[in-house]
Each structure stands twice: as structure tokens, then as C-alpha cells.
Write a structure and sequence with these properties.
- Residues 138-381 form the Periplasmic binding protein domain.
- This is Periplasmic binding protein domain-containing protein.
- The protein is 38% helix and 14% strand.
- By secondary structure, the protein is an alpha/beta fold.
- It has a domain at 236-359: Response regulator (Rossmann fold), CATH 3.40.50.
- Helix 9 (236-251) crosses helix 10 (266-277) and helix 11 runs parallel beside helix 12.
- The two termini are 33 Å apart.
């Protein structure tokens, strides 16, 4: 049985790390406490969140106030299922969720939003600059992932500056962005790699310049640690096999279509190869650039082709409503859809129309885990070469739809607080 999520609950997140002044007075904190660097008070008691999280007042390393039950509730929210036990997660990922079980105060959220809007943001007096290098930061999912990375970065007093770049799908610009980040002193870099091995030389150059580079969600299987310190991702081949099983559950052995994101991206190539090896019969393929316009064009082409695809396998949930509407307009039955991530518009449309739909969770939280990996390395600690997280696909359920939330809200599993969600989505 899947756990229902309350749409209006506050999302689990952690508080901004204490300022240097507070750290100097650490001995006094036990008795008197200390305000955050922005002057607001920080509670040391439990706070209300969908993860049942406790507020922390000691930065990223404070987990003593977090119970196992609270952490498990955060994991349930992040995974959009209660089938993943917290104790089964890799140690670094479990530590991430422990620290993700606190809610940032209003001042911390304001700082996070200011950093999210800016290309460069000074957040404290720490001597580490964090770079967020996005290969294609132009859709809603990437925007929420950037926020998750920033929220995590704000738990580290060691981070003094955050610099964000967006290559808009251009490899040459992505390579240039990485050079720019290291030239500006970035010692920790997190990235969604849209370009696969073509980006490895630029990553390697960044690491030679002294930056620890970690990637999230997009695969880097086979990447040397000289290029990527830590890959925070699912087992891409297993993801393809799981999609194949969900397809069998939905439509049996019927033929299907594969929709991809940016042309040639390794994520889609990886799962599609393994889904095919698992017996999925793809009779149509199209790129969408992970945009609604691209998905509409691909759907129209599929319908026009006359090929009898009974399911569409895709790695982004946000454009699904335009795909469904394209079928409705053509007076054609909507095929089953098996898709990565989660999206409120998709979930609420399904609630009305009830086509066959399987989704993962939002996955935005993986960007925050990548921050932890890069920061561990930047601070001279051990970081694993890969941080593989569970990747369950679940059938759509009514509670996935959050009434009153915008269509492109990626769901509670994004772990972004409500007030920041509204600002990201222009509300």
C-alpha cells in the first residue's frame, strides 16, 4: 500500500547553517541558543513537515534531534512510496535524508530564493565556492533541482559563494561554463550532465583545477573518478528493466514508443537499451528536448505514423498532459504512459481521465545529495564513486494530485517548501 501525502504539508528540509559568529559561541548555544545570520530565531524543537522533521541548529552535521521514524517519513515522501526502508540506503544518502528532515525558516528560504534568481550569490564567509553547472536548465524540473542544490548548500558554513550556469543544451557552452567556474575558484561542482562522455574531458579539467565534480540523475556509467567524483543516479539499466515490467503490467507485450529528451543524451540511451533487452518492443522513437512543445510534436508524429503503440515510455512527466490532449484532439485512445519524475498537471489530469500511468518520484532531491558528495571531497573526506538510489515506478493514485498547486509543481517528493514552490512557479 502506498502512503498518501498531504499536499498542503510543509516539505522536509534543513535549516541554514549557523554563522561563523554562532560557531565561535558554540559553548553558549547549549544554554542560550543563537539566532541565524539573518537575525531570525531558530527553534530547537520539533517543526511541522511532511517528513515529521525536527528543526536543527547546528548546520549539516546536526542529526541528533532526528528520529528514525522521522527520517523514514522523509524517505517515504521523497520516494513517493513506503516500500523503501531508510536503513537500506547507502550511508551518504541516508545521511542526506537525515539532514533533509528539517524545515528551513523563512529567512533561509528568502536567501535560497535570492540565490536561485542570481547567477552569483554570496551566502557567508566560508572559503568554498560551489558551482551548479546545468547542461540544460530550461525546464521546470531543472529549476526545482537547482533550488534543492541551493537549499542543501545553505546547510554548509564552509560554502561562502554559489555560482550557477546554464548551457541551454549546448556542449561548447557547457565546457566553457565549467572552465569559468574553476577560474572563479569553485572547489565543489554539481551538474546534470546532458552530454555523456563528451563532457568528461571538461569535468577532468575541472578536477585538475582542484574542484570535486558530482553529477545527479543523468547517468555516468563507466566515467572515471578523474572526471566525476560521485555519480548520484539510479541503476540506469535496472530502470529500463523496471520500465519494461511496468509496461508488461500495463499492456502486456504490445508494441510501444520511446520518447527521449535532448537528442543523444545518455540517460535515455541507457534505459531504452535495457528496456529493449528486457523484451519491450519499441516501434517508434522521437526526441522531445524534455519540453511540452517537443512532446506535442513527437505525439503528433506518432499518431500520424499510424503505428499501433499501446504505451509511451518517457523520462519526464511534465509534458504528459500535452501528449494526452493531443490524443484527445485526434479522437484516439490514450496509450499507457510510463514516465520518470512526477508532475501535478499529469497527476491531476490522470485523476480526471484515468489512463494507465506509472511514475517515479520527483527526483529533484538527488541534486542536494550531489552537493553532499562534492562537499565531502572538497573538505578532504571520502566520497563514493557512485551513489545509487532506489528507483521505484508506482501506479498513479488520487493523492498524487495536489489541488490548488500549479500544473508544473513536481510534487511533495521534490522536498522543496511550499513558499519556495510558489515563487519558482511564479505564484
Amino acid at each position: 500500500m502506498l502512503r498518501d501525502r498531504t499536499s498542503n504539508a510543509r516539505r522536509p528540509r534543513r535549516l541554514l547553517a549557523l554563522t561563523v559568529a554562532c560557531a565561535a559561541l558554540l559553548a553558549l548555544l547549549v544554554v542560550a541558543g543563537c539566532g541565524s545570520s539573518n537575525g531570525s530565531s531558530t527553534s530547537t524543537g520539533a517543526s511541522t513537515s511532511s517528513g515529521g522533521g525536527a528543526t536543527t541548529s547546528g548546520g549539516s552535521q546536526t542529526t541528533a534531534a532526528v528520529s528514525d521514524a522521522q527520517v523514514q517519513n522523509t524517505v517515504n515522501t521523497a520516494m513517493n512510496t513506503d516500500t523503501v526502508t531508510a536503513s537500506s540506503l547507502p550511508p551518504m544518502l541516508l545521511d542526506y535524508f537525515k539532514r533533509a528532515t528539517a524545515v528551513p525558516d523563512a529567512a533561509t528560504q528568502a536567501k535560497a530564493y535570492a540565490c536561485w534568481q542570481a547567477n552569483t550569490c554570496t551566502v557567508g564567509s566560508g572559503d568554498i565556492t560551489l558551482g551548479i553547472a546545468d547542461g540544460f536548465g530550461d525546464n521546470t524540473w531543472r529549476k526545482f533541482s537547482k533550488m534543492n542544490a541551493i537549499l542543501e548548500a545553505l546547510t554548509y558554513p564552509e560554502i561562502g559563494k554559489i555560482i550557477s550556469t546554464n548551457a541551454h543544451g549546448d556542449l561548447a557552452k557547457f565546457q566553457s561554463d565549467l572552465r569559468s567556474l574553476t577560474a572563479q575558484g569553485a572547489k565543489a561542482i554539481v551538474s546534470y550532465n546532458d552530454f555523456g562522455p563528451a563532457a568528461y574531458s571538461a569535468f577532468t579539467a575541472a578536477q585538475r583545477s582542484g574542484a570535486a565534480v558530482s553529477t545527479y540523475v543523468g547517468p555516468g556509467d563507466g566515467a572515471p573518478t578523474s572526471a566525476i567524483t560521485t555519480r548520484v543516479q539510479p541503476d540506469i539499466c535496472q530502470a529500463g528493466k523496471t520500465m519494461a515490467q511496468a509496461t508488461k503490467d500495463a499492456v502486456g507485450s504490445a508494441p510501444v514508443a520511446y520518447f527521449s529528451g535532448t537528442p543523444g543524451n545518455p540517460q535515455d540511451a541507457g534505459w531504452q537499451k535495457c528496456a529493449t533487452e528486457a523484451g519491450t518492443n519499441a516501434i517508434f522513437k522521437a526526441d522531445t528536448s524534455w519540453t511540452p512543445a517537443g512532446a506535442q510534436k513527437a505525439t503528433s508524429a506518432l499518431i500520424a505514423s499510424g503505428k499501433p503503440a499501446k504505451a509511451i515510455l518517457y523520462s519526464y512527466s511534465n509534458p504528459v498532459p500535452v501528449m494526452v490532449k493531443t490524443y484527445n484532439k485526434a479522437n484516439k485512445p490514450v496509450p499507457a504512459i510510463i514516465t520518470w519524475t512526477q508532475d501535478n498537471g499529469t497527476s491531476c489530469l490522470w485523476k480526471k481521465q484515468q489512463f494507465k500511468l506509472y511514475q517515479t518520484n520527483a527526483l529533484n532531491w538527488a541534486a542536494g545529495a550531489a552537493v553532499d558528495a562534492s562537499m565531502a571531497k572538497a573538505m578532504g573526506k571520502d566520497a563514493p564513486a557512485e551513489l545509487i538510489y532506489p528507483f521505484p515506478f508506482t501506479q498513479a493514485k488520487a493523492s498524487d494530485c495536489a489541488p490548488g498547486k500549479p500544473a508544473d509543481f513536481p510534487g511533495a517528493s521534490s522536498l522543496v517548501p511550499d513558499s519556495l514552490t510558489a515563487k519558482i512557479l511564479g505564484g
